[in-house]
Design brief:
L-fucose Isomerase, Chain A, domain 3, 2 domains, Fucose_isomerase_N/cen_sf, alpha/beta, AraA_N_sf, metal ion binding, Rossmann fold, metal-binding, six-stranded antiparallel barrel, 476 residues
Length: 476
């Protein structure tokens, strides 16, 4: 279980009795929050910061504890911020400044200076907020009474994002083949990706994977086929092609597990030794939280794994998709998003079907894939692009909709959505911002989640939605 350290600030101006009360109140607060949040991560209370030395020791522990994904700080009383400087200078993990207080209401009839001094968060948090700003420490602020549902929800979001950032910093990405030839937007600086987000993106020879696949036993293939048939509807007589994909998934599983890899890419331009382009195998792996993107797009592969981790405890779908084609009926414009094969079944509105159909790219045998229509509801579309001197995250609000008519001849999974605020502004803003054709769509996450991730990783963020105006486009 991952943990978040909870650090409370005070000082010794008001005596030991005051500090004892601060400690007891802090214990009660952490206990309450754990009851609400411990299914995501456990909050652990650190010694009350009374001196610079205590602060330093707290943050040393934060940084050496591999299970710690972030820190929540709160000032119960006034806490002189100079004594936080040396400790905060050690911090390299996500930080939430919780601007709250132990009591919800003022005891108007009995309030005195002792109560004022003890419950002085309005003073202490402003002193603390200044030093965070002065030191340029990237952080999140949540303001409100800690027992209110809105505040709990925002703390929950912070923990989910912090968990995703921790996952990101340990993520390894395997590239089987390179970026698709001549394509620009899917390429990027892999060294800078590792510096910025922790992604270890390395090339692996496809032949090494093929060797593992070639040693997958019939028993292992049978077991994977049983899984497929329990989850999906078989709509093909070409069982051999489906078994080939089952072998691919078993082999990929072994390779990813052996190398501690959480995301991967392939490319139809490098399939030497494979009979098919991975289809259902890649789709099924994505459904289990493994990041994926085609054509060597390491950024989308890694980012999809991170966002799936962020959405782990939420209902809804999150995964890779590609912008494909439009229905441009005036005032009713829709986008049909899909890919050659690899749309994760988490987007399926009904039970996916296993089909084996020709693929006019890659020059290999007909691959098995999952075919389905997509879920509906509000969602976001997110992409990351390399602008040369920085990474840019683009997040657009969308509405996933039911397809207006059947598509019996389209041999791939698909989802359809409307752009917000409308097609003209939504797609124009995406193009002005340099948005890629590969992205991650999610009905589980929101723009607020992406904004917090961008803040805590100090990433540029451009958002598109109902609040986007025509005059905004000239600034993108």
């Amino acid at each position: 279980m991952k943990k978040v350290y909870f650090i409370v600030g005070s000082q010794d101006l008001y005596g030991r009795e005051c500090l004892d009360t601060v400690a007891k109140d802090s214990e009660k607060m952490v206990k309450f929050l754990n009851e609400k949040l411990e299914y995501i991560a456990k909050l652990e209370l650190m010694p009350i910061v009374e001196t610079s030395e205590i602060c330093i020791e707290n943050f040393k522990k934060v940084m050496v504890d591999e299970d710690c994904i972030g820190v929540i700080t709160w000032m119960h009383t006034f806490s002189p911020a100079k004594m936080w400087i040396k400790g905060l200078s050690l911090l390299r993990k996500p930080l939430l400044h919780l601007h709250t207080q132990y009591n919800e209401k003022l005891p108007y009839e009995s309030i005195d200076m002792d109560f004022m001094n003890l419950n002085q968060s309005a003073h202490g948090d402003r002193e603390y907020g200044f030093i965070l700003a002065r030191m340029g420490i990237v952080h999140e602020v949540v303001a409100g009474y800690y027992k209110h549902e809105r505040v709990i929800s925002q703390i929950k979001r912070f923990i989910e994002v912090a968990n995703a950032i921790d996952f990101s910093r340990h993520l390894k990405v395997a590239s089987f083949g390179n970026n698709m030839r001549e394509v620009a937007v899917t390429d990027g600086d892999r060294v800078e990706s590792q510096i910025k987000y922790g992604w270890e993106c390395n090339y692996y020879a496809l032949g090494d994977l093929v060797d593992i696949i070639n040693h997958v036993s019939e028993v292992e293939t049978d077991k994977k086929m049983e899984e497929y048939l329990s989850k999906y509807t078989l709509k093909t007589d070409n069982i051999k092609a489906v078994r080939e994909q089952a072998r691919y998934e078993v082999g990929l599983d072994k390779f990813l597990d052996k190398n501690n890899i959480g995301a991967f890419t392939d490319t139809f331009q490098d399939l030497h030794g494979l009979k098919q382009l991975p289809g259902i195998s890649a789709q099924n792996l994505m459904a289990r939280g493994i990041g994926f993107a085609p054509e060597g797009d390491y950024k989308t592969s890694a980012f999809s794994a991170v966002l799936m981790k962020m959405a782990k405890h939420r209902s809804g779908a999150t995964g890779f998709i590609e912008d494909y084609t439009y229905d441009l009926t005036e005032d009713e414009e829709l986008e049909l998003a899909s890919h050659m094969l690899e749309v994760p079944p988490s987007f399926a509105a009904t039970k996916p079907e296993i089909q084996v159909l020709p693929l006019g790219i890659g020059g290999k045998e007909d691959p098995a894939r999952l075919v389905f229509d997509g879920v509906t509801g509000d969602g976001i579309q997110v992409t990351m692009v390399d602008m040369g001197d920085r990474f840019r995250i683009i997040c657009a609000d969308i509405e996933l909709v039911k397809q207006p008519y059947p598509m019996p001849k389209l041999p791939v999974a698909r989802i359809m959505y409307r752009h917000k605020p409308n097609f003209e502004l939504g797609t124009a803003a995406w193009c002005y911002a340099g948005g890629a054709h590969h992205s991650i769509v999610s009905t589980a996450l929101t723009r607020e989640d992406i904004a917090m991730f961008a803040r805590l990783t100090d990433s540029e963020l451009i958002t598109i939605g109902n609040d986007t105006r025509r005059e905004d486009l000239s600034h993108l």
